[in-house]
């Protein structure tokens, strides 16, 4: 029997993408869930919600500000240290400890499994799926597609977090711009953009919207890298797409001799806030 509470996931950057993926999955199976990358939670969500507040470092300014807004509401903290861990220990608060030593984007699977397990305590969810490892041919194909600035499209809104995750992996691992959108929305606005040949077009295709994807291909007339996602369920396919994008961006960073780990501008931004 599924608990009727609403799930609200709060987090920024690499700490927040797990909430995007899980909330999308929960919505697909009929559980009310939302994900926010913000420091201000809309008042309509403040009641009848269980908040999952994730900051890998435990010191993310926006996440701490949002937490202070909801700390008297039902919540769980997910962190490896910093302010949030100290708060949890000092106040005997509910929290899930994360292992130290990762950059937040590389802790994605750890965070996702942690919050999936949390929701499983309240709702009957299937066992966390075994993610199919992408083959080297598809990893190379994806890496080739990412050599230009990519326009990354998911075949439907149901798996959009996978497209957004790939966009942010290109930003952080390859240190360049990327853009993401989803069918059918992109076919009513972005399709009109000029100079499309200056970009690579990547479709993360769960096979759930073929009529509209094929119509877009005919209308635009550019080559698209169409990745058919493997898996039994939409959730499986979304995780497969994320693993494919993760491995391809790491592979391409190695080929181009890009040190993907440092994020100097993010550091400067955080320093400017303090």
Your description of this structure?
This protein is an alpha/beta fold. It has two domains: 6-120, Rossmann fold, CATH 3.40.50; 136-255, Glucose-6-phosphate isomerase like protein, domain 1 (Rossmann fold, 3-Layer(aba) Sandwich). The protein is built from nine helices and nine strands. The strands form two sheets. The chain has a five-stranded parallel beta sheet, sandwiched between helices. It has a four-stranded parallel beta sheet with strand order 7-6-8-9, covered by helices on one side. Strand 4, helix 3 and strand 5 form a beta-alpha-beta unit. The longest helix is centred in the last third of the chain and has 22 residues, at 234-255.
The number of helical segments is 9
Reading off the top of the CATH hierarchy, the class of the largest domain is best stated as Alpha Beta
What can be said about the biggest beta sheet? 5 strands, parallel
What is the 3D form? globular
The number of domains is 2
Instruction: Report the CATH architecture of the largest domain.
Output: 3-Layer(aba) Sandwich
Q: Tell me the structural class.
A: alpha/beta
Name of the CATH homologous superfamily of the largest domain? Glucose-6-phosphate isomerase like protein, domain 1
- Report the radius of gyration as a whole number of Å: 19 Å
What is the assembly state of the chains in this entry?
single chain
Total DSSP E strands: 9
Write down the CATH topology of the largest domain: Rossmann fold
Order of helices and strands: EHEEHEHEHHEHEEHEHH
């Amino acid at each position: 029997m599924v608990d009727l509470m609403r799930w609200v996931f709060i987090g920024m950057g690499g700490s927040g993408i797990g909430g995007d993926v899980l909330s999308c999955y929960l919505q697909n199976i009929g559980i009310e869930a939302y994900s926010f990358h913000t420091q201000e939670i809309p008042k309509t969500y403040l009641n009848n919600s269980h908040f999952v507040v994730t900051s890998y470092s435990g010191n993310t300014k926006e996440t701490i500000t949002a937490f202070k807004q909801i700390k008297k509401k039902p919540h769980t903290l997910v962190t490896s240290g910093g302010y949030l861990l100290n708060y949890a220990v000092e106040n005997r608060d509910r929290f899930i400890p994360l292992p130290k030593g990762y950059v937040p984007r590389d802790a994605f699977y750890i965070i996702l499994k942690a919050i999936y397990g949390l929701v499983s305590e309240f709702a009957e969810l299937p066992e966390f799926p075994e993610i199919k490892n992408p083959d080297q041919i598809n990893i190379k194909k994806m890496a080739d597609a990412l050599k230009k600035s990519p326009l990354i499209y998911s075949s439907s809104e149901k798996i959009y977090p996978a497209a957004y995750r790939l966009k942010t992996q290109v930003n952080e691992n390859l240190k360049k711009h990327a853009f993401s959108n989803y069918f059918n929305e992109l076919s009513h606005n972005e399709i009109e953009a000029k100079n499309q040949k200056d970009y690579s077009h990547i479709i993360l295709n769960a096979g759930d919207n073929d009529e509209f994807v094929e119509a877009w291909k005919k209308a635009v007339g550019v080559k698209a890298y169409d990745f058919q996602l493997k898996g039994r369920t939409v959730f499986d396919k979304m995780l497969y797409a994320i693993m494919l994008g993760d491995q391809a961006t790491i592979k391409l960073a190695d080929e181009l001799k890009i040190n993907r780990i440092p994020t100097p501008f993010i550091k400067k931004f955080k320093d400017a806030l303090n």
